[in-house]
Amino acid sequence: MATPAAITTDAGAIQARFTVASSSGGMGSVGGVRLGVHSTGAVLVPHPDKADKGGEDACFVLRDHGAFGVMDGVGGWADEGVDPAAYSSMLAEKSAAAVLLGMLDPRAIIADAHANTRIIGSSTACVAVLRQDESAGASGSGSVAPQPGRGGSQVVIGNVGDAGAMVARGATVVFSTPPQQHEFNCPFQLGWKEFYPESDTAEDVETFTVDVLPGDALILGSDGLWDNVPALEVAEVCAAQVAAGKCAQEVAEAIATVAFEHSVDEEYDSPFTQEARRSGYDVEWWEKAAGKELIGGKMDDIAVVVAFLDQEGKCPGPTPAMSGESQSGEAETQAGDSDGHTEEEGKGEGRRTPTGKQPK
Description:
Elements: E1 16-20, E2 28-30, E3 33-45, E4 57-62, E5 67-73, H1 84-100, H2 106-116, E6 122-131, E7 142-143, E8 154-160, E9 164-169, E10 172-176, E11 181-183, E12 186-187, E13 190-191, E14 206-211, E15 217-221, H3 223-226, H4 231-243, H5 248-263, H6 271-278, H7 285-289, E16 302-311, E17 327-331, E18 344-346
Parallel strand pairs: 7-14
Antiparallel strand pairs: 1-17, 1-18, 2-3, 3-16, 4-5, 4-18, 5-6, 6-8, 6-13, 8-14, 9-10, 9-15, 11-12, 15-16
Helix pairs in contact: 1-2, 4-5
């Protein structure tokens, strides 16, 4: 199947918001060698039915700060006449703003963004930050134990809902976040409590601290990625692309392409349908008697963010700020930058109605 047009550089296919920062924070160290973000890539692929509006997922990339995020807006709000992309987009903007103001703890970043996103809607959220401080994730809900001989370079991940992040080392999975759901296909999500009192809160954010090494890949995605591509396959696609000399942007596009192709494949046994069967869902009894089972991809918006880590001396310098200070602007273009010189925010996707936690 051909690569969907939505992940080309067609300016009309993907909407992104750009934030250019002048700081070079967000570094870590391993074995006395400081780590930085060498390069980044990001792509947003809308659900085919939402291609005209660009979908409802959102992402931000702040390479100089080593901070990244993916948000997935709740599609159920469309039934109430509300654009589901509005909340996820603002949540991404507010998260990036919190980073630019000096916040480096993912839970605090999400909490601040949640408190300042005062519009109708709701969204899942995943934020990851490259940190040097070994105590960064001490108050969090999970960690990957350091291994002998490893230094203090870490990625701290905060996640609420079924967006998520993973760290790949070659074709292996070092870590991946578990989805956070109230029940099958009903993820935790954040919304403005004045209009959505059933919203989950930043207290529900799960945090994880993962030791990283030069050459590791940090990959964030909305559920449109994880519902269609197992983490191991994501790592294998990433490793194959790197071996072929592809840049971070091309790696992000390749991962998104695989997710899209799986999502429209009715014969593919996706992670989503596997989980559905485990949760008691299946085809009708007469179909089951004929040997059929519930399979197929899950068509959805797809967001992918890729960041390659390396020794600081091998990473590009800080992005020059416009007019000597941090500024922001808007552009309709492909999310992400293969050279890692662009700090970005994009638009979003999600799922849950304003009257309760509903399945996607």
